[in-house]
Each structure stands twice: as C-alpha cells, then as structure tokens.
Amino acid sequence: MLSVVPIKVYVNTDLEKLQILKDNKGKSGVYRWINNINGKSYIGSSTKLSVRLLQYFNTKFLLYKTLVEKRNSVIYNSILKNGYSNFTLQILEYCRADNCIDKEQYYIDLLKPEYNLLPKAGSWFGFKHTEESLAKMAASHLGKKHSLETRTKIGEAVGGKNHPMYGKPRAIGAGKPNQTILVIDLVQNTETTYISFSEAATALGIRRTAISTYISRNQQKPFKERYIFKRVSSF
User: Fold this and answer.
1) What is the mean pLDDT of the chain?
2) For the residues 145-160, what does the mean pLDDT come to?
3) 82, 59 in Cβ contact below 8 A?
4) What pLDDT band is residue 203 in, cutting at 50, 70 and 90?
5) Which of 105, 107, 108, 157 might form a disulfide with 64, Cβ 3.0–4.6 angstroms?
6) Whole-angstrom Cα distance, residue 109 to residue 220?
C-alpha cells in the first residue's frame, strides 16, 4: 500500500474544527478527507484552504450542493451521513497557489481516492463552455421545477422556515433567460449556472444587489476575491 506522510493530520474533525481553520489560514495546498469507517477518501486542493475547509463544516452548504448541483455529492453525502467525528482530515502538502491543481492531480493519480468523481483535478473549473453549451445549460434550467420534498430541503438548507421562499413553488416564468448567470468560484474551482440572480445570491449567501451591481458595472475583479459573475446570453 502506498505510503504518504501528510503535513498535518486531524483524526476527529468534529472536535478539531477550530484548530483546522486556524492552522490553515492564509495557506494553499492539497487536502484529503478519509472516512474512518470504510477507509474511502477524497482529495481536493484550494488556494485558500481555511475558506474551502470552512465550507465543508457548513452543513447547509453541503446539503444545498448535494440536492441541487450534484457536484462532489459523494464526499458531501458521506460527511452528512456519517458525521465529522467519523472523518480524518489530512493536509497532504502546502504549495504555491498556482501549483495547487498540479499537486492535487499528483495525489489523485497516486492514491486513487474513491470519492473523487472526476479523474482530473480542477476539471469543473478548467472546462471552457462554448456559447452554444452555455445556452443549452440556461435552457435546461428554465422552467425547472423541484418536488415539494426537494423545495422543503432546499428551504431548510438556505434559510429554514423563516426564509420567504421556504416550501413555496416557483412562480410561472420565474428565472427569465436574460437573468441566467454563471458563477465562477475561484476557491472551490467550480462553474455553476443559476437561473436567476436571486437563486445565485441565495446559494452564495449574499445580496442579490451585489450580483446585479457587479454585472451592471462590468466589474472584472473577483467579488470578495472569490466569485466572478457572468450573465449567460439568451437565445
């Protein structure tokens, strides 16, 4: 069995959450989640480790991603199902921000983690959508309706019963084509299409006006040094 000596090891992430965030603040590198029950693992990397790891400790974030986007759903589902106390977190290596993806790929090839859905590091972020594919993604989302059960779970994930849209069906015509937006997350290395500014704002936990202002002013600098917003053209 291949042996890798990690930089740091946290055997009970439930108890060591604060230490994890403190140790990795301002650092970039490669991490590995290991299920203590079955030994399966997931490898990822981030240019801002503490920010990325904080997302893993946000159960609302994990639930939303699992229900709506299906990305990284295996590791997210496993954490939600088994709990943080049944996971070990390893920091495999600290590295330069511009070298994270290469290092992540090295460890994926070496350790072949079972929870990684894609064999290539940064595949979601590195994939360049053509104008045609963006249009198809936008069209596929328009008019999409969730089941009552899914709407309820999403409502709980992003605001609970106090949220104004909790448990309510989408209004007919909601999510106009000209409001479909692509969100590039520089921390998580993902590209996600939302059917409206409001949906994107809810998912990211920010104000809708922040997105509309970013778009209207044609800003280029990442919002909060993390997100890039692009309106998806309608056809």
Assistant:
1) 78
2) 52
3) no
4) confident
5) 157
6) 35
Check if the beta carbon of residue 31 is closer than 8 Å to that of residue 89: yes
Instruction: Extract the tokens encoding 140.
Output: 């596929």
More confident residue, 185 or 154: 185
How far is the C-alpha of 87 from the C-alpha of 197, rounded, in Å? 35
42 strand-pairing partners? 33
Average pLDDT score over residue span 212-225 = 88
pLDDT exceeds 80 at position 146: no
Rg of the chain over Cα atoms, rounded to whole angstroms, equals: 18
**Amino acid making up residue 69:** E
- pTM listed for this prediction: 0.56
Tell how far CA 102 is from the center of its chain: 19
230 strand-pairing partners = 182
Nearest to 114 by CA among 34, 6, 11, 189: 34
Pairing mode, if any, of strands 41-46 and 190-194? unpaired
Closest residue by Cα to residue 176 from 195, 199, 160, 162: 195
- Identity of residue 223: F
Query: Cα–Cα–Cα angle for 185, 179, 168, nearest 5°?
Result: 90
C-alpha 48/C-alpha 144 separation (Å) is 34
